[in-house]
Design brief:
nine-stranded mixed sheet; Aminopeptidase; binds coenzyme A; 30% strand
């Protein structure tokens, strides 16, 4: 049985700022971006099981993300540049069960037009730093396909370390594990 995690409240999680980025709790107006990103075969190349076909499925995704926010006080953020309103992508942590423990799964997915300038590393670092302050007892994990080198780099840049002992066959092929140190 997985232990029920405790919520984190009043931690300022709904809006984080980094040097260039603004991370906000996803709102209904972000649905177009959620739909566009999760119907983009390039953005989902390594995780085709995350693809959606209909807006209804994207709505359900947003509903699930919002449910975690309501329940635990944190979750995935919509990531924007501070000087531009269009979402660049999404990044954050979600509670998942792993080996009978509740852990925080680090997620990041950005529009291909925003790749290669460090946004994912900047956002993922902010997310992991937030967990270190507000969820210090929780382990953070990232599961990455072996061929997804950019994602592996982001996990390392965010402060996670490679933990090959935990590698598993995942939904979309082998999952390489990265975990928070200490
Ligand atoms: C993975 C992803 C978030 C990286 O986004 P990004 O904004 O381009 O990442 P960054 O610019 O912060 O780059 C991180 C590192 O990856 C490297 N990198 C970027 N694209 C790369 C590529 N195609 N091949 C190899 N390395 C790459 C960068 O050079 C950088 O390396 P460094 O740490 O040595 O400087 C982005 O490619 C993406 O959204 N992919 C689709 C969704 C996905 O796969 N998510 C992860 C699921 S596990």
């Amino acid at each position: 049985m997985t232990v029920e995690p405790t919520p984190t409240r009043d931690s300022g999680a709904e809006e984080l700022r980094t040097e260039r980025l603004l991370l906000c709790r996803p709102a209904p107006e972000d649905l177009d971006a959620i739909f566009a990103l999760h119907t983009d075969p390039v953005a989902c190349e390594h995780n085709p099981s995350d693809l959606v076909e209909t807006r209804k499925e994207a709505e359900l995704l947003l509903l699930r993300w919002s449910h975690q926010w309501d329940r635990y006080g944190f979750g995935y953020w919509t990531v924007r540049r501070q000087d531009a309103p269009e979402p660049l992508g999404f990044c954050g942590v979600k509670i998942v069960g792993f080996r009978r423990n509740a852990v925080l799964n680090l997620f990041y997915r950005f529009f291909p037009s925003a790749w290669g300038v460090g946004y994912a590393s900047e956002a993922a670092t902010a997310a992991v730093d937030w967990t270190r302050v507000h969820r210090p007892d929780d382990v953070v994990i990232a599961r990455v396909r072996p061929e997804n080198v950019a994602s592996q780099r982001v996990a390392l840049r965010a402060g996670l370390i490679r933990a090959s002992d935990f590698d598993t066959p995942g939904d979309d092929g082998a999952d390489w594990f990265y975990i928070s140190a200490g």
